[in-house]
Design brief:
The complex is a heterodimer of chains A (224) and B (216). With 224 residues, chain A is of the alpha/beta class. Chain A has one domain. Chain A has helices at residues 2-23, 61-71, 83-89, 103-110, 113-122, 205-222, and strands spanning 26-34, 45-50, 79-81, 124-148, 151-172, 177-198. In chain A, helix 2 (61-71) crosses helix 6 (205-222). Chain B has 216 residues and is an alpha/beta fold. Chain B has two domains: 1-30; 33-211, Lipoprotein like domain (Double Stranded RNA Binding Domain, 2-Layer Sandwich), CATH 3.30.160.150. In chain B, the strands form two sheets. In chain B, strands 5-2-6-7-8 form a five-stranded mixed β-sheet. In chain B, strands 1-4-3 form a three-stranded mixed β-sheet, covered by helices on one side. In chain B, helix 3 packs parallel to helix 5. Chain B is elongated, with a radius of gyration of 24 Å. The mean pLDDT of chain B is 87. Classes of the chains: A alpha/beta (224), B alpha/beta (216). The A-B interface holds A 52, 56-58, 60, 62, 87-93, 95-98, 114-115, 118 and B 40-46, 136-138, 165, 167-169, 171, 186, 189-190, 192-194, 196-197.
């Protein structure tokens, strides 16, 4: 009986370990390109904005918020002004149609006294533009579920791949030039086996892209 | 005795169930009504030192757009945006002009000598792009406006067309209602942004402001 129990527990642990290893198959690659010196004081802030000019997608607000949370927490956190708060305060200068696309446009914007004074009021030292999307591909398999008087259940297998590509461009508000850029490419395969109950083994692709990009951005702005 | 009471209740239960089924059936066929609402920030611009009389036509106040279902030919969504349009102009105009006077009719400007010009916005077209139809991962709204600026006596100053575009990502488990509302708010902000930054740049408006020393 004891041997049987030990065998069952070992099997369960092995299956759980296998599922966890399948669940964790996400790869993240981060590239940094630095064009100038950076650094930020405690009283200064940054703002992280999503690019929304592309025709068939737009950078999701939830991803922008996720990166902002990573940058503003942990060791050496940076003050981050909320995206919506900044967009409302600077309205109408950072709307999709009117937002500066290059640092040349930013210099023109900073020549407008009301815009410059509002930016100074917030103590914005860097503007970070996030642009990217998570795409799903290679979807395969099928799961069918049935329900009857005696009960119900699902059987089948589904799999798909998620690919997150994001780029952060950092503008220095002192020099009104680009300080650098960071890009992240994360991808991972998710699985959904169903034996009576579907077991989702989701690759946390966007979450990994967010934490990788956020931590790299924090280091970049802190200058180390 | 109890069985008799139950028998008495059966026709009532059947009636109630029939009514419930009928209501369900009707609600499945009815068009969904989406009321656009949102608050808009006051634009960060220098005020133009003029007093503008503003008249909102009835069509703008009660503007609603009906999206037709391609398969059934019936109304699929009714989008009411009139209230939100008025809220937008009520936020933008006082930020752009030194004084704003609301008018019951454009002719009412003649009785107020402080009014420099009369502004009348009108909506001409409204288009909706749903992800299930466009196959894009965004909800889209496109609007076309006609803006008219005239002297208090009705004499033409400027008449120009403006377009506004807004999109919102189609997120997981998001309702159509929420996607359309988000896209509409973006479109209205787009209108407010281009109107605020572009008003003085309209050639006829610029000439009129210059001729009357109204440039800020």
């Amino acid at each position: 009986m004891k041997r049987f129990l030990h065998g069952s527990i070992f099997k369960a642990v092995a299956i759980f370990g296998l599922l966890m290893s399948l669940c964790a198959c996400t790869t993240t690659e981060i590239d940094e390109f630095r064009q100038g010196e950076t650094g930020i004081a405690d009283h200064e802030s940054i703002v992280i904005l999503g690019r929304r000019q592309n025709n068939n997608y737009e950078t999701e607000g939830s991803f922008v918020q996720c990166v902002a949370n990573v940058v503003s927490s942990g060791s050496r956190p940076i003050n981050v002004v909320g995206e919506q708060e900044f967009l409302d305060a600077m309205f109408p200068f950072f709307e999709p149609r009117t937002a500066p696309m290059r640092t040349g446009h930013l210099r023109e914007l900073m020549d407008i006294d009301v815009a410059k004074s509002k930016m100074d009021e917030y103590g914005i030292e860097y503007i970070v533009w996030l642009d990217g999307i998570t795409q799903r591909s290679e979807q395969a398999g099928s799961i069918s579920c049935t329900i009857g008087p005696g009960g119900g259940g699902c059987f089948g297998f589904g799999t798909w791949q998620d690919d997150s590509n994001f780029e952060a461009e950092i503008w220095d508000m002192d020099t009104l030039e680009t300080a650098g850029s960071i890009s992240t490419d994360a991808n991972g395969q998710s699985y959904m086996p169903a034996l009576v109950v579907p077991i989702p083994l989701i690759a946390r692709v966007e979450a990994n892209a967010c934490s990788g990009l956020g931590n790299q951005l924090k280091q970049f702005i802190n200058g180390s | 005795m109890q069985e008799t009471k139950l028998q008495q209740h059966i026709p009532g239960i059947i009636k109630a169930a029939s009514c419930f089924a009928l209501v369900l059936l009707l609600s499945a066929c009815a068009a969904s009504t989406i009321n656009i609402s949102g608050s808009y920030p006051s634009p960060l611009v220098r005020k133009i030192p003029i007093t503008v009389g503003v008249y909102y036509p009835e069509e703008l106040r009660n503007f609603s757009f009906i999206e037709i279902d391609d398969y059934t030919g019936k109304d699929q969504y009714i989008i009411n945006s009139g209230e939100s349009q008025i809220e937008l102009f009520n936020t933008v105009l006082p930020a752009l002009f030194e004084n704003v006077v609301m008018l019951e009719a454009p002719e009412a400007a003649l009785s107020d000598s402080s009014i420099d010009a009369v502004f009348v916005p009108a909506i001409e077209e409204f288009q909706l792009g749903l992800p299930q139809k466009t196959k894009l991962k965004v909800y889209e709204i496109w609007m076309k406006y006609n803006m008219r600026l005239s002297n208090p006596d009705g004499e033409y100053i400027a008449d120009w067309v403006m377009t506004a575009y807004g999109k919102a990502p189609n997120e997981n488990f998001q309702s159509v209602d929420s996607g359309v509302k988000d896209a509409a708010v973006v479109a209205m902000r787009d209108l407010a942004a281009s109107f605020t930054l572009g008003f003085s740049g309209i050639p006829e408006v610029n000439d009129w402001l210059r001729d009357n020393n109204h440039l800020p």
